[in-house]
Design goal:
Number of domains: 2
CATH topology of the largest domain: Aspartate Aminotransferase, domain 2
Number of strands: 8
Number of helices: 6
Structural class: alpha/beta
Largest sheet: 4 strands, mixed
CATH superfamily of the largest domain: Type I PLP-dependent aspartate aminotransferase-like (Major domain)
Shape: globular
Helix content: 25-40%
Strand order of the largest sheet: 1-2-3-4
Distance between the termini: 35 Å
Order of helices and strands: HEHEEEHHEEHEEH
CATH architecture of the largest domain: 3-Layer(aba) Sandwich
Amino acid sequence: MIKIPSLKKAIEEDREKGYHPFCIIGNAGTVNTGAFDDFKALRKLADQQDMWLHIDGAFGSWVKLSETHRHLADGIECADSLAVDLHKWMYMPYGIGCALVKDRLAHYSTFVYGHDAEYIKSGKELSVETLTGAYNLALPLSRGFPSLKPYMLLRAYGRDKYRRLIQQNIDQIKYLAEKLINDPCFEVTAPVVSNVVCFRYVREGLSESMLDELNKAILSELYEINMWMISDTETKGKYMLRACCTNHRSRRDDFDYLVNQIIEIASSLNR
């Protein structure tokens, strides 16, 4: 989570050195641990410093649909731009990501600059407010139609269906975290904020480096079981396993099996 006083100090130091910081980037669900920044505080600082506020909400922004954790995304609407991936926590086909920009004129001006080619100009005068051509809003002129997929899925299933699935994933990770916390074989290594839990298998008498090697070996064995798709990460020098639940088919039994499988693998490793 961004420390606002430290960020403000860094901006001021950059300007003193002759640099021109122009954009603050907040996180709606960091990849490593699922942490969220204080978006209202970032908005206030961006206004004070006359800077653009972008929020990386690749998967975490969808927590806004949750009944219990939507507060994590409070202030996300204050962003000047927001990046989201629908192929992550919205269960859609891979490759459907987009950026939302609040100021239509700023978005348009970034790519057109008022001198777009004559052969793609419209036959009638259009104001920026009525522009609909996607070629005016990004680099590519020719493109596919990936937005049809989320449009049809949203029409088919609706907001409530996705809200229930988002909440289901959060509840499942909470369930997994509680299992890990209550089992002396495991250590939860970072706060469980939303749908991500970081943890490691622990064994008495092992040094930190030995625990790292043990957990790396456990993950390697898990990768031999095709059904498991947990990952690993490192925070503050500590290696850990990472489970991020973005699967609409996951069941609580899957998490019970995962924990048991890790214990079984660890027991079989002579480390």
